[in-house]
Amino acid sequence: MADSPRVVAIPGSLRETSHTRTGLRRALDGVREAGGSGELLDLREYDLPPFDADRDEAGDAEAFTRRVREADSVLLGTPMYHGSYSSPLKTAIDYCGFDEFEDETVGLLAVAGGGFPVTALDHLRSVCRALNAWVIPHQVAIPHASEQFEDGEFADEGLDRRTLTLGRRAVQYADIEPDPGSFEGGQNVGAE
Fold first, then answer.
1. Start and end of every NADPH-dependent FMN reductase-like domain (predicted)?
2. Which residues contact 17 (CB under 8 A, 6 or more apart)?
3. Mind listing the pLDDT tens digit for each residue in 7-62?
4. Rounded Cα gap, residues 92 and 61, in angstroms
5. E strand or H helix at 124, and its extent?
6. CA 168, 170, 176, 178 torsion-angle sign
7. Is the dihedral of CA 49, 51, 57, 62 positive or negative?
């Protein structure tokens, strides 16, 4: 790992005025505060068609997975859709596998128009563990998202602090000793 941990943030929202993207940008401020470097991998800039295992190098998959693989930590952000995470993020993760996530530090952020997006965070945590990632215990849930931002910044100081902390933890734990592989990872033959 380089002296300055490199963190990539992947927002699972394609909306122009995405609260997920705003939240991850703020987490990247925390990355920089902690001495790391950060980059947003905006899925709107990648051609990632629905995953087909017979065409795993479709579109921009190779360029996308290379950037994820080169990172020391990954931040995943998603709007909550039907109690889970978004299909653009699912597709992006489907192009990845153990090469991108095994022993990688991953932080999670989820946004909801209504109440807390806890199930989206739980589902992402489960997927990351199935890829043997080390998921940061601290996570960010942004409920009632339209009320949480003013002029592109957090209106709530506590939520802003939690989001900055997520970025700082991505740097702090970038070189943490990985956990032994999970049972889920051992059963995840499709990701190999």
1. 5-146
2. none
3. 999 999 999 889 999 999 999 999 999 999 999 999 999 999 999 888 767 899 99
4. 8
5. helix 118-130
6. positive
7. positive
Q: Is 140 within 8 Å of 109 (Cβ atoms)?
A: yes
**61/39 Cα distance (integer angstroms):** 17
Within 13 A of 4's CA, how many CA atoms are on the CB side? 9
Please state, as a whole number, how many other Cβ atoms lie within 10 Å of the Cβ of residue 46: 18
**90 Cβ neighbours under 8 A, 6+ residues apart:** 12
Q: What is the pTM of this model?
A: 0.92
Residue 80 CA to residue 90 CA, distance in Å, equals 12
> Which token pair is 51?
């995953």
Is-contact 109 23, C-beta < 8 A?
yes
Tokens for 155? 């209106």
CATH class of the domain at 6-178 = alpha beta
End-to-end CA distance of the chain: 23
**Is 150 exposed, middle or buried, given 0-12, 13-18 or 19+ CB atoms closer than 10 A?**
exposed
Q: Report helix angle 157-172 to 19-33, nearest 10.
A: 60
Q: Are strands 149-150 and 153-154 parallel, antiparallel or unpaired?
A: antiparallel
